[in-house]
Amino acid sequence: MARLFGAVTVLTGGRVLTGAEAGAVAPFVLWSDTLAGLACMAAGAGLRTGRRWAAGLSVAILLASRGGRPAPLRRATLT
Question: Is the pTM here over 0.90, yes or no?
């Protein structure tokens, strides 16, 4: 799933970067999303092949996407 998400992110970001599609974009967001897509593809490939660095890269992506804050743990409730 991470590889698919990364590929779609790189594809859409690459289309804007190459001028194929453009609109109102923030360059920082465009570049950071494209680089994050590449990182997701690398992490997915690394996890698939059992590379030790892939888990660390996955955690780094998680923390970067959350602004450095880990997700809060919540107790599940049944309704």
Answer: no
